[in-house]
Amino acid sequence: MRAAVIVFPGSNCDRDLVEGFRGAGADVTRVWHKETSLPDGLDVIGIPGGFSFGDYLRCGAIAAQSPICRAVVEFANKGGHVIGICNGFQVLCETGLLPGVLMRNAGLKFVCRAQKLVVESADSPFTNGYSKGQEIVIPIAHHDGNYSADDALVAELRASDRVAFSYRDNPNGSAGDIAGIFSENRRVLGMMPHPERASETAHGNTDGALVFSSLMDAMATA
Amino acid sequence: MKARVHIMLKKGVLDPQGEAVRHALGTLGFSGVEGVRQGKVIELDLADGTTEDTVKEMCEKLLANTVIESYQVEMA
Fold it and tell me: Active site includes A112?
């Protein structure tokens, strides 16, 4: 599996995400935001957490318009796999690859804790190693993680099995307790929790490692 | 020439920051503040001849997220 991790000014989880992919056996390169093209033969792109461009204007808005993001959108539109975590989820929403938007947490406070999640769908390249309904713990750390979507969109996401993960004890006011969603073709995943921070025994929790090994399995059988 | 863009959350979109400001005004003793909505103003210095349509395109593409925000352009 060949993976690329995009790096923006202000990204701060890019190295962790590289290690997450490597832990599953991927060959990973980091790609600076000013690049206009992606490495050849890529299987998956990771958009990391952090504070790209200082969260100026809106979280992820400036990053979504950077040169490399045009290539990322093109890659996704051709059926490529993309995972955006935390700020990466915000970026994916701003590019329009995923619907909805992440707003300021309902409680207005930055939340940073180990968070219980429910795996809502195991039917995707990112979650095939989990089982539906499984409860896992993944760290969250964000100020703007309040997934905002109207009732019709939430219903549509539920009906089409596009909610990847949901929160137990909603920490940020997200509509429908949504913590992560898939694109229509299920090859783009955006999630606020950080699986790369729970993917090695040294982290004290390996619940997130399955996101990366699921991808590896999906690529091997593709 | 200049343009001023006003960006506000659409009606119906919850504004937790505005709500916190409303609450704070209440604790300061300002009674009767029934609602606060917080938005932003962006001022653009533009080359002469830039049209309002161009500024609206900027809003659609970057300045506003039209999923949750509405915008108004004021050309000056």
Answer: no
A194 included as an active-site residue: yes
Question: Does the annotation mark A86 as catalytic?
Answer: yes
Chain A stretch 52-91, residues whose beta carbon is closer than 8 A to a beta carbon of chain B: 57-58, 61, 65
Q: Are residues A89 and A102 in contact, defined by beta-carbon separation less than 8 angstroms?
A: yes
C-alpha dist (Å) from residue A74 to A36, A62, A70, A200, B29: 11, 18, 6, 32, 54
Backbone CA torsion sign across A45, A152, A111, B17: positive
Pairing type for strands B2-9 and A146-148 reads unpaired
Whole-structure pTM value: 0.95
d(C-alpha B76, C-alpha B73), whole Å: 10
Residues A1 and A219 sit within 8 Å (Cβ to Cβ): yes
Closest chain A CA to residue B41 = A57
Q: Which residues of A touch B59 (CB under 8 A)?
A: none
Residue type, position A207, single letter: D
Question: B65 CB contacts (<8 Å, ≥6 apart)?
Answer: A58, A61, A94, A101
Judged against a pLDDT cut of 90, whether residue B75 lies above it is answered with yes
Which amino acid is located at A27 in the chain? D
* pLDDT by 10-residue block (mean), chain A, 222 residues: 97 98 97 96 97 96 96 98 98 98 94 98 98 98 96 97 98 97 98 98 97 95 75
- For the complex shown, is ipTM > 0.90? no
User: In terms of Cα–Cα distance, which of B41, B26, B38 is closest to A103?
Assistant: B38
Q: Is A103 on the interface with B (CB under 8 A)?
A: yes
Closest to A179 measured CA to CA, from A218, A140, A129 = A140
Cβ of residue B24 closer than 8 Å to a chain A Cβ: no
- A106/chain B closest Cα distance in angstroms: 6
What is the spatial order of strands in the sheet that B2-9 belongs to?
Answer: B40-45, B2-9, B69-75
Total beta-carbon pairs less than 8 A apart between chain A and chain B:
33
